Amino acid sequence: MNRFRYLSVLAALGLTLLSGCSSPPGQPRKGSETLAPNEVLEFGTLFGQNCAGCHGAEGRGGAAIALADPVYLGIADDAAIRKVIANGVHGTSMPAFAQSAGGMLTDKQIEVITSQIRSRWSRPGILNGANPPSYAAKSTGDNQRGEVAYKTYCASCHGTTGQGGPKGSAITNDSFLALISDQELRTVVITGRPELGAPDWRGNVPGKPMSDQEITDVVAWLASHRVQDPGQPYSASNPQHQDSAENSSSGQLREGHDLGRAANR
Fold first, then answer.
1. Does the pLDDT value for residue 212 go beyond 50?
2. Residue with more model confidence, 97 or 243
3. Residue 111 maps to which CATH number?
4. Disulfide engineering: 198 pairs with which of 53, 165, 188, 192, CB 3.0-4.6 Å?
């Protein structure tokens, strides 16, 4: 009996030693290594680290539009989405993510994000029979027609001049327009902001969806409100404020100069 127990202990010890041979001391086990950033291909990690900060957790929207919006995915094809992710949108807060454009993501990682956004959040057929506008403008917009269309479809929420209202934000604000491209304006006019309660192109006036040309014209009218130096505290068109600012700066400079002379005496 004692011999049997002895042999059992030896056998167990032998198996333990043999199992340890496949993983020498100090060597990580297979699958335990931390992946290099350019090797990560899990959508949740990629989206969470690169997209969710602006587009919200699970693509539900934030500072930027919701990507988990079937209407948006119904008008924007994979090529358009991939291009924006890879190259960003110049002059806006959307950066380029492709390594070839100075970002951190490989082409394969961008493909994972693009394909998974569609496979997870699109709804095939959602725009069937809706005659949706094109993702990109097909013609040049007209400011005057755009103002008329804006008053018809948008002013009830965003104010008569785009200054904002009880139901909608200011959209002719120079700082806002400096952070958004014409294409982004068009996308928002078409898709709305469902996460904020803003309707798509069909819901502004009941029974009267916006036409493709009306959307193009509204975008042209909004874009015409951009200024050369957005975010300045005083408008270049208000000389009185400019003079006041310049006089204040001159006074501060003179005061500083006088203090400096006094200190040197």
1. yes
2. 97
3. 1.10.760.10
4. 192
